[in-house]
Amino acid sequence: MKKFLCVVVLGLAFCSAAQARILYWQGFDTLAEGDRELGEAALAEEFGADTRQWPDWITPVALYAPTKHVDFVFIVRRPVNEPCGQYKYTIYGTVTPDLRRDKWGEFCAGEVTPVFVPGRDLPDLFFEYGHQEDADGVWQRADQKLRWDQDQWWIIKS
């Protein structure tokens, strides 16, 4: 009986640790193997490849958005000072059979929220507080819900 309880407790602890990694912004030092390098590469475009030279005011963070399977969509947040929004989000897909993640795109907004859709394997992404330039050159707020399907992003109209 003691062995059984130990196995149950260890199993719950493992599941809790794995579940704790998802749906909150976490520092790069907590990321899974390989994902830290992807995160640093996403920020290198803005701040350079040497992480020791990055400004003190940035907080490198990423988020794991769960799928219906055992994998996650990986989202890196990069602070920017642009009219489109406060952050650029680099989206990486689930882990491929050859143990890599493909880059699915970048978006500019204030916040991103994974939205779980019944019957779909991957979450939709809702980008809030983003802005897009209209034909007259005026920046307008443009919240968007996007869905990854057939290897591209689609805007979901409400």
Report on this model:
This protein is of the alpha+beta class and 158 residues long. The chain has one domain. The chain is built from 2 helices and 11 strands, in the order H-E-H-E-E-E-E-E-E-E-E-E-E. It has helices at 2-20, 35-47; strands spanning 26-27, 61-66, 72-82, 85-95, 101-109, 111-115, 124-128, 131-133, 139-141, 144-149, 152-155. A 5-stranded antiparallel β-sheet has the order 1-2-3-4-5, with helices on one face. Strand 2 and strand 3 form a beta hairpin. The N and C termini lie far apart (53 Å). The relative contact order is 0.12.
What's a concise summary of this model?
The protein is an alpha+beta fold.
List keywords for this structure.
single chain, 158 residues, 2 helices, 41% strand, 4-stranded antiparallel beta sheet, alpha+beta, 5-stranded antiparallel beta sheet, disordered N terminus, 20% helix
Number of strands: 11
The H-and-E topology, N to C, reads as HEHEEEEEEEEEE
Number of helices: 2
Would you tell me the structural class of the helices and strands? Answer: alpha+beta
Helix content range: 10-25%
Summarize the SSE layout with pairings.
Blueprint: H1 2-20, E1 26-27, H2 35-47, E2 61-66, E3 72-82, E4 85-95, E5 101-109, E6 111-115, E7 124-128, E8 131-133, E9 139-141, E10 144-149, E11 152-155
Antiparallel strand pairs: 1-2, 2-3, 3-4, 4-5, 6-7, 7-10, 8-9, 10-11
